[in-house]
Design brief:
7-stranded mixed β-sheet; globular; Aldehyde Dehydrogenase, Chain A, domain 1; alpha/beta; Aldehyde Dehydrogenase, Chain A, domain 2; 6-stranded mixed β-sheet
Length: 460
């Protein structure tokens, strides 16, 4: 593996240095080919996602394929516009000059992806990296192996390995990859591994995007519409079996409506997954037995008010609601990343500030309220990756909204044009003629100081 990695990096470095990735038409062509190859493998992709995570065809299309097609279409349609040199107004001090900004690819980039949306979280960053003219080495997750192997096949069919290459493996292979000097690293995964990546990247001063997780609070005040709130929470929490980085991790509900909301959440779970979610073809599975064990350990000593059934052999974990009173429990100390929904009832709004402050910089924050202004003020008060008033998860679908974390939930952003920007250095330069060279800026200043100040004051 060590030799393979070294070899690929050497080839990609040489390819990038050859400036072949600067050809915009070629970038577009490759993205079109990628789209075609994905179309040709659609059934296989859906099947791999089913084998890895029990995802239904509908869920796979909605949350993985459709997302990737949109990102591809946006990049193919806009790449000419994105790469175009931008002209900006020049500064009087430089008169006469023409001032520009151009998008420069970073060079060779490393992408490390997780297992929960293993297809789209691997392909979406790659689209922007290629559109911007970089090379890519992708290390997908060792847990979603069916999808990871298929990703390798698709990529091998579209790209030469000196442009894009998949390296399979787990922490050991990732650690080996991180020993090399990359020009950009794009990591999606957990906070702890994100810190390892950042540390290794710092050795080479490599710019890094870290898309991490967090414990996402979801507040419901007494004015919220119970039925719609329950629907939107159940959808966002239990899609992909709760293994969604921006799923609401726990609820903070006004005591006046708590019982009614819990009942409605249970009704909604039964409505969309039936009385037994294990036989529903819309309900997914946990990625591995190890993750099932972790999730079941979180339920120790907790007050389960609905669900709790586990079939470890079949990686099934029932949608589960837990009533909480203590934020020091294991369940409330870490990101759950599974189908357990803790519910806390608050008496007055002052409590909420303390709770949210415990989970600094979550990847997402949600509030359900009919008081729109109040909802907006609430979101203004906290630092978080992205969020919604009266919904969960869906802010991810708008490519015009940059997606990413802050602080503990990461750094950097992507989706749509933001991905292209992430993988580009915006290089400014000015261009001046020789025919005039104003003497004002050249020493000695003594005789012209008062005139110089007058001129500068005009433009301050
Ligand atoms: P993880 O951090 O365990 O693994 C992510 C990737 O890092 C995998 O490819 C893995 O092989 C690799 N890796 C593992 N150990 C490594 C090491 N020591 N050095 C380098 N690489 C290493 O995360 P996961 O379990 O795959 O995914 C779940 C986490 O990812 C959750 O915290 C979730 O919130 C987060 N996540 C975030 C986003 C986002 O967009 N912000 C999206 C999906 C998942």
């Amino acid at each position: 593996m060590k030799d393979l990695i070294k070899n690929v990096i050497t080839k990609q470095r040489a390819f990038f240095n050859s400036k072949k990735t600067f050809d915009i038409q070629r970038r577009k062509e490759l993205l079109k080919n990628l789209k075609k190859e994905i179309k040709n493998n659609e059934k296989e992709i859906e099947y791999a996602l089913f084998k890895d995570l029990g995802k239904s065809e509908g869920e796979s299309y909605l949350t993985e394929l459709h997302f990737v097609y949109s990102e591809l279409n946006i990049a193919i349609k806009n790449i000419d516009k994105w790469v175009k040199r931008k002209s900006v107004r020049s500064s009087l001090l430089n008169f006469p000059s023409s001032d520009y900004i151009i998008a420069q690819p970073y060079g060779i980039t490393l992408h490390i992806s997780p297992w929960n949306y293993p297809f789209q979280l691997s392909i979406a960053p790659l689209i922007g990296a290629i559109a911007a003219g970089n090379t890519v080495v992708l290390k997908p997750s060792e847990y979603s192996l069916n999808t990871s192997l298929l990703l390798e096949k698709i990529i091998d069919n579209v790209f030469p390995e000196d442009l894009v290459k998949v390296i399979q493996g787990g922490p050991e292979e990732a650690a080996e990859l991180l020993n090399y000097h990359w020009d950009y690293i794009f990591f999606t995964g957990s906070l702890n591994v994100g810190k390892i990546v950042a540390e290794k990247a710092a050795k080479f001063l490599t710019p890094t995007t870290l898309e991490l997780g967090g414990k996402n609070p979801c507040v419901i005040d007494e004015t919220a519409s119970i039925k719609v709130t329950a629907k939107r929470i159940v959808w966002g929490k239990f899609i992909n079996c709760g293994q969604t980085c921006i799923a609401p991790d726990f609820l903070i509900v006004n005591e006046k409506i708590k019982n009614e909301l819990v009942n409605e959440i249970i009704n909604e779970i039964k409505h969309i997954y039936g009385d037994d979610a294990q036989v529903s073809d819309s309900y997914g599975r946990i990625i591995s037995k190890k993750h099932i064990d972790f999730l079941s350990s979180l339920l120790n000593n907790e007050n389960i008010i609905y669900g709790g059934k586990i079939d470890s052999e079949n990686k099934y974990f029932e949608p589960t609601l837990v009533e909480i009173t203590d934020f020091n429990s294991n369940l409330m100390k870490q990101e759950i990343f599974g189908p357990i929904l803790p519910i806390y009832q608050y008496k007055n709004f002052n409590e909420i500030d303390k709770i949210i402050s415990r989970y600094k910089d979550p990847l997402a924050l949600y509030i359900f309220t009919k008081k729109r202004k109040f909802g907006e003020k609430f979101l203004m008060n906290y630092s978080f990756g992205g969020g919604a008033i009266n919904d969960t998860v869906v802010h991810i679908v708008n490519d015009k909204l940059p997606f990413g974390g802050v602080g503990n939930s990461g750094m950097g952003k992507y989706h749509g044009e933001s991905t292209f920007k992430t993988f580009s250095h915006f290089k400014p330069y000015i261009s001046k003629p020789f025919w005039i060279d104003l003497p004002l800026r050249y020493p000695p200043f003594k005789k012209k100081i008062s005139f110089l100040k007058k001129v500068l004051k005009l433009i301050e």
